[in-house]
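Attaching the record inline, Q. Sequence:
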Amino acid sequence: MFRIIAMTTLAFSLLSLVSAQAEDRPTLEIAWPAAASVIELGNDSEKAIGVVVRSNFTLLSAGECGDNSQCGHVHMKIDPDGDTCNIPGKPYNSMNSDFGGDLIEARFGHCPVVVGKHVIGVLIADDRHKPILVDGKPVTALVTVTTK
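Structure, as predicted:
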């Protein structure tokens, strides 16, 4: 009887540990725009839209996370398979490291072809702008949209 109780207790402990580790894994998703959205861009030179992200990470300004290992900010690229939509001289299109939070600007005006199908890609970075990794891969989210 004691052996059954001990094994049951051990099993529940292991399940709790696995569950806690899964909850600690960083998550990231693009809440808006939705996949396959058609987005009308404004007349400003940056043709910017707001992109809303969701994460179980605390999203703060770079340098504000301190000892919180569940904290960072978001880097964004439009058409992330290349660099054609990046801000000139930068390895990204936008990031929210100056202010944190769940809103980031997608600046389509930096793309050589502004109107058409694009992929918005985001990743979580730490205070030093290094990607947060899970199983050796950056934590990212992608959504395909069409701009007009």
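Helices lie at 2-24. The chain has one domain: 28-147.

More tomorrow.
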